[in-house]
Design a protein that fits this description.
single chain, 29% strand, alpha/beta, 546 residues
Length: 546
């Protein structure tokens, strides 16, 4: 039949409309270099021997619905110019699609592959592997997907996606990877979805994508995700072994040693990895390295205090500079914050500019929910011996307790407010030193005005001389110190007041004669000023200790 259909000039078989519905091919079938000008239908066909379609060209629709390939099938170099449909196809042996070009939609829904090789192939349109089963191995090396790629519900025993390029969106939703997964390096210009996928064996992912969705995924073995450019959503994921998410510093390297092209992501200047959500995750086995956490949602994360943060993991910052709230200035001390606090601050009445309002999915989260988050992050930093790094999260925890109007009593909130004003919860040395300087200045002014006497009281001796002679007894005393009636604010009085104040700071008495008011002023300063000095020292220690 093929000889009769060969074109005299090209010696290639040429078909118009080819209908092989329900045909049975008992031996080897050779359609290599064949040209199918119209639609080609192989629905329910059975190929008992090898089937070769190498270099074949399908100008119309190629239909292989429920076809069964019992032996090896090769479509190496084939070109599908129309839609290519392989639903419910069974490939009982090796299925080779090397250097195949699919110019329009390709569908492999519910197909069964014993061994699948899609190396160096190009999918110009959308491709669908819905609920496909890869019983032994699936290889997608050097493959280019220019449309959307859908692997929803597919099952992989061993999966290899090496040097693949996805120029559209790709979905592995509900896919099952039963054994080893070697995924990458892969470049995806759009969204790569792994949501609800199951990984049964060790996983290594090397992905450069604009966004990576891993919601409700399950990881039953160790996993390492090395990413670039991606915004990652890990909400409600479950992993039973250590899972590492890290930013790859430079472009991924191919097996030849050359860097993998990332032209599809050229419009994204920042190659860093951003975490979008960890809600519902048990973070006991989670390791994050060089990840941007400024937009990450943490509320609802379990065992957040056991997460390991390696490298330069960044968080959000408070608004810089001084802002005006009506008539009074507002300035926030620089510190690291979580995304939910940014969202809560921005939603408050009379909120200042600069808080991040573009936090998606934050919901109705307030200080009551944020205080435990900051406490857990503080403990995570302390357990890693990074106590200076934990200081910002201690500050955030105290801020949330101070603003919590439901679980914090009025008395406790008052104490926290005073602690915040005086020293920034024992973390802002400049604030405590400022209050100390102000207290010393007030003490000096009060001493000069009311505490220092006009002049040093002189001692007086009084006694009685017996008339008949004998022993004379003297009594020594001083006159009460008197406030001056003239100018009280002189350099000499300033020097004395400064001496008294400096001694009070270190809880010592200067021995200076004082008026009654001055005595009480000194007593008060000997209590307040050492406390302020101690808060300043504590703040410095909390910032520099290891």
């Amino acid at each position: 039949m093929l000889d009769a259909l060969c074109h005299p000039a090209t010696t290639r078989p040429r078909f118009g409309v080819a209908d092989f519905e329900s045909a049975t091919f008992d031996s080897t079938v050779d359609f290599r270099s064949a040209a199918f000008e119209g639609d080609a239908s192989f629905g329910s066909a059975i190929f008992n021997g090898h089937a070769w379609f190498g270099e074949a060209t399908f100008n119309g629709r190629a239909w292989f619905n429920k076809a069964a390939f019992q032996a090896m099938v090769g479509l190496d170099g084939a070109v599908f110019k129309g839609d290519a449909d392989f639903p419910f196809v069974t490939f009982a042996d090796i299925a080779g699609f090397t250097h195949v070009t699919f110019e329009r939609t390709a569908t492999f829904q519910d197909a069964i592959f014993q061994k699948a090789a899609f190396y160096y192939s190009t999918f110009e349109g959308d491709v669908s592997f819905l609920w496909a089963l890869f019983e032994q191995s699936a290889g997608f090396g050097e493959v280019t997907f220019k449309g959307e790629a859908c692997f929803i519900g597919a099952t992989f025993k061993d999966a290899l996606f090496r040097s693949a390029t996805f120029q559209g969106e790709v979905s592995f939703k509900e896919a099952v990877f039963e054994r080893t997964v070697r995924f990458g390096p892969v470049v995806c210009a759009g969204l790569l979805t792994l949501s609800e996928a199951l990984f049964g064996g060790p996983v290594t992912l090397a992905i450069a994508a604009r966004r990576l969705e891993c919601q409700r995924t399950r990881w039953s073995s160790t996993a390492e995700l090395r990413l670039r450019y991606a915004t990652v959503n890990f909400a409600q994921a479950v992993f039973e072994y250590p899972l590492i998410i890290a930013t790859e510093a430079g472009p991924f390297r191919l097996s030849s040693g050359q860097p993998m092209a990332e032209d599809a992501l050229a419009a994204t200047p920042d190659a860093g990895v951003r975490m979008a959500s960890l809600r519902g995750v048990d973070a006991a086995h989670l390791v994050l390295s060089d990840v941007d956490l400024s937009g990450c949602l943490f509320t609802g994360t379990v065992h957040l205090d056991q997460v390991r943060l390696e490298g330069a993991c960044t968080f959000g910052e408070v608004p810089p500079r001084t802002h005006w709230r009506h008539w009074r200035p507002v300035r926030f001390t620089q510190r690291r914050t979580v995304a939910e606090e940014q969202h809560w601050r921005a939603s408050q009445p009379m909120a200042v500019r600069g808080w991040n309002t573009a936090v998606l999915g934050a919901g109705q989260v307030g200080p009551a929910q944020l205080a435990p988050v900051y406490r857990a992050l503080r403990k995570a930093f302390e357990d890693s011996k990074n106590e200076p790094g934990a200081a910002d999260f201690y500050y955030g925890e105290m801020e949330m307790r101070r603003h919590n109007r439901t679980d914090t009593t009025h008395a406790e909130r008052g104490l926290l407010h005073g602690y915040w004003m005086l020293s920034g919860y024992g973390l802002r040395a400049s604030r405590a030193l400022g209050w100390l300087a102000a207290a010393m200045l007030v003490t000096i002014m009060l001493l000069m005005g009311f505490g220092l006497p006009k002049e040093t009281p002189k001692q007086e001796a009084t006694g009685t001389v017996p008339s008949g002679g004998g022993r004379v007894t003297f009594e020594m005393g001083k006159a009460d110190p008197q406030n001056p009636t003239g100018n009280r604010y002189t350099s000499r009085r300033f020097e004395k007041a400064l001496n008294v104040t400096l001694n009070s700071v270190v809880f010592r008495s200067s021995g200076q004669d004082l008026t009654t008011a001055g005595t009480y002023i000194e007593m008060l300063s000997r209590v307040t000023e050492p406390i302020l000095l101690g808060l300043a020292v504590l703040a410095v220690r909390n910032r520099v200790k290891r």
